[in-house]
Design brief:
Length: about 130
Amino acid sequence: MTERTILSFVAEQRLLKAAKWSRFLAIMGGVFAGIALINAMGLTIRMGRTGRWFGEAYLLDISYVLLALMCFFPFWQLYHFGKETETALQTLEENRLDKAFEHLSQFFRLLTFVLAGFALIYFAGGIALRLFF
């Protein structure tokens, strides 16, 4: 079998560097999602102790959990992109590289939903503040 590649050495090195950075960013994103979940639990505990477990506190707690979960999954896909890309470039497996780019595609698709969710929450919150307060 003849070895064929469409990547130059420089492109391969840059892709490898991007894969390493994507893993780092994915880990940081997961850490921040975990911090958001810890904040949600802390909010639940504080509101439970003060007896103010109603209305906006409950909504804020659910929002923290949903935002943390929404942020976790794109970073999970980004991590898998980095891992699969590094493995594919080391083993020269085309199927792995295809799988890596599928993870990258999923990352951007999920990130679009996350940004749309943030925009919806931001604008809905702004409208609610103007209407009710």
